[in-house]
Amino acid sequence: LAxxxxxxSMDSYEGQEVNITCSHNNIATNDYITWYQQFPSQxxxxxxxxxxxxxxxxxxxxxxxxDRKSSTLSLPRVSLSDTAVYYCLVGxxxxxxxxxxxxxxxTTLQVKP
Amino acid sequence: xxxxxQSPKYLFRKEGQNVTLSCEQNLNHDAMYWYRQDPxxxxxxxxxxxxxxxxxxxxxxEGYSVSREKKESFPLTVTSAQKNPTAFYLCxxxxxxxxxxxxxxxxxxxxxxx
Lengths: 113, 114
Hints:
heterodimer, A: mainly beta, five-stranded mixed beta sheet, four-stranded antiparallel beta sheet, 48% strand, globular, B: mainly beta, seven-stranded mixed beta sheet
């Protein structure tokens, strides 16, 4: 499974756009990129998943350059309730590598008023 | 409502005791997972099961055991052999039997060894 690298923490203010970048230099051809959000004392929640270019849903966008060695999660107009830890994962669907799923330390986003 | 449940929410155990954490899902998912999370850390995979009556060790399986007798249930037993069991335990399930598939998480069980 490809290893990912994210910033440990980020600060932002309400109403701003936040971009969190994840590096995954060893991503394999069959790998997808998935982002999760976790609030304290809760289980992570799926945010978005993509393979290439751009994916957008009702809460976020995911930008993936052509070489796929990195990806950027974009949160538009954050609010205080977006304060959480964000995890970037890389893996292939149907893979036999499930035993090596790695969440890492994630990025702690602090949104200030 | 479809979802994944864990019980109890808080669990206290004396040293030397085995305890079992419950995980139930009604999402009809084949794959289920158990993770451990320590303060300020990411999740680490303990065990996973891709189908009934089958399960595999994750990265930190020592001191833990699981069973998968029913599709909807995947209980985790923390044995006395686990040297440092105090942690937050999360159960998850997914349709896709692989790392790339979306995983749905339960609310977690916080285990404290007294």
